[in-house]
Fold:
Amino acid sequence: MNLRKSLHIFLVGSLYLLSFAANAELSIQITQGSDNPIPIAVVPFSWQGNGVLSENISQIVMNDLEQVGEFSPLSRSNMLSMPSEEREVFYSDWRILAQDYLLVGKIDRSPGSQLVQVQYEFFDINREIKLAGEVLSGSVAQLRDIAHEISNVVFEQVTGTRGAFTSEILYVVAEYVSPERTNFRLEKADYDGQRAKILLESVEPIMSPSWSPTGRDVAYVSFETDLPRIYIQNIATGDRRQITNYPNLNSSPEFSPDGTKLAMVLSKDGSPDIYVHDLTTNQLTRITDHPLIDTEPSWTADSNSIVFMSERTGQPQIYQIELGASSFEVERLTYDCFQCLNGMFLPDGVNLVHVRRETRQDPNYQIAVLNIETLRVIRLTSTSLDESPSIAPNGSMIMYATKFNGKGVLDAVSIDGMVRFRLPSTQGDVREPAWSPFLN
Structure:
């Protein structure tokens, strides 16, 4: 029995009062895939209407699945048939081609409406059963959203992990103009770099973008007043408000998972320390108090503790402190590296993503995962200047900034290190990625 429901995805792009189409979108390049990808056939969706659609749903789904490295889509030229619904599916056609899964669908114009209806059905070839099927409705401009939603369903059905294809990313682009001027842009895009939008432009640096847990607001540091100050901006309306105006350094804003607080780094009382700003009461609480640098806060999932980097032992290491604890009641998490920075937990609360420099003699900074219970370390990257890791909302991938051919790019790697892709920009250096929470 087909499951039918109507999914109405309302685009907010037309509401971006301060957003404009970005000058150059990022474009995914797959640099490494899984050694044993899952064979899947994604049949071109049939179109029952007139004209040519602006987006190819089946191609977007194929791209999604291939980009995460766990799937190997069948070439359309090798397909023996082109079914668009269940009654046209012959499992033997796909077993001959050694396919494990099959996705078919069709697109039609909703009667008397500007909306289109997208029906898809997803099959397990070996068990000869239908795993999922829906009718999704939206405007032609929403076809990419619908495609990503279908990819989410396929990914979860096969892997058991919620798909993150409808998630988005924030990042900063620095475009060199002259020795006296660099233009900075805070941009938002789909996880794959498509549909980039400019949230803020400035001739002064923009740093440390961070998503609110609802995905409606972003926090960042702007030097537009010639001093680093923290702002929160609503994505849909572009409305923004300045959160801090303290002397000296105001940096590294990070929303708590429950959305009630904003961690930050301030040096108003001397050396940089961790503070928490209550977004309801506007009360500021000092969390650490040390004469050496404490910075790079991130939150535990329960919003009760903060992970941070400190130089209190002479070199950067990662620590954890509970809210309300004495500033000296900190737990050191990293020991086996010369420098460890940018610490943040995966959703399991046990594996710590971080940037590490192994020894004093080793100049390389690479992304790694430390299990704080077993102390096992998995090094995920082999490049030399990796920084600013950000975790996909389903915990399956890590996006980070690095250098390629002398230019700033965003790379992503799976948590087992087996899958990699790159998001280079055609214009400017790209840095400081922030992966959104689940948005639907």
